[in-house]
């Protein structure tokens, strides 16, 4: 099976930047899509961004103009660069991987906490 491990979360002040990383294992996981979702207390989990194995990207409105998603295929790693962070960005950010084989398979990391506060 596939394991996803996030890193890079922490406490930042409003307006600052933070980059999250997600490493997939094993190296031959062959994920078709990797992305990020987030969940704040009392709210539903929502899509933040995704990138396909053809490097097609999508940023949800909540991060458009501020967030960038990228990947390093050789390292089986996806990154989420977050600029201009706001208090409302405070949430647990989950890495997600999708593989289409005989059926759709979804994999999730344990989550990385991001707190934006002065």
Broad structural category: mainly beta
Number of strands: 11
Rg of Cα set: 14 Å
Q: Helix and strand string, N-terminal first? A: EEEEEEEEEEE
Overall mean pLDDT stands at 96
**What gap, in angstroms, lies between the N and C termini?**
40 Å
What this model shows, in words?
- 0% of the residues lie in helices and 55% in strands.
- The protein has strands at residues 3-7, 10-12, 18-25, 33-39, 46-52, 57-59, 67-72, 77-82, 91-100, 104-108, 112-116.
- The radius of gyration is 14 Å and the shape is globular.
- The N and C termini lie far apart (40 Å).
Give a quick set of tags describing it.
7-stranded mixed beta sheet, globular, mainly beta, 118 residues, 4-stranded antiparallel beta sheet
Write the layout of secondary structure elements.
Elements (H helix, E strand, L loop, with lengths): L2 E5 L2 E3 L5 E8 L7 E7 L6 E7 L4 E3 L7 E6 L4 E6 L8 E10 L3 E5 L3 E5 L2
Parallel strand pairs: 2-11
Antiparallel strand pairs: 1-3, 3-8, 4-5, 4-9, 5-6, 7-8, 9-10, 9-11
Structure, briefly:
With 118 residues, this protein is mainly β. The protein contains no helices and 11 strands.
